[in-house]
């Protein structure tokens, strides 16, 4: 049931919903937090051997609000091992 709910939400997803943690119009922290949450979620679920589909929510949020250049820079930093965030 929960998996079906997640899949339905992902299919109906349009843009990042309101997040009370980030009430202001500047969405930089929201972008950063969702990027980190996506990779933390993947890491945690991979360690448990569970499907990582629920993590797709975070990816959809950060890809809708983060500039592509930021995401590319962060991806490069993760690959090079000098990413500043704690995943």
From TrEMBL:
GO cellular component, one term: mitochondrion
SUPFAM superfamilies to which the protein is assigned, alphabetical: Cytochrome c oxidase subunit h (SSF47694)
InterPro entries, sorted: COX6B-like (IPR048280), CX6/COA6-like_sf (IPR036549), Cyt_c_oxidase_su6B (IPR003213)
One Pfam family matching this protein: COX6B
Location(s) in or outside the cell: Mitochondrion
Keyword Disulfide bond belongs to the record: yes
Keywords for the protein's UniProt record, in alphabetical order: Disulfide bond, Mitochondrion
Membrane spanning stretches: none
Disulfide bonds: 31-66, 41-55
Keyword Transit peptide tagged: no
Family: Belongs to the cytochrome c oxidase subunit 6B.
The protein's role, per its UniProt record: Component of the cytochrome c oxidase, the last enzyme in the mitochondrial electron transport chain which drives oxidative phosphorylation.
Name under which the protein is recorded: Cytochrome c oxidase subunit
Gene that this sequence comes from: LOC117544858
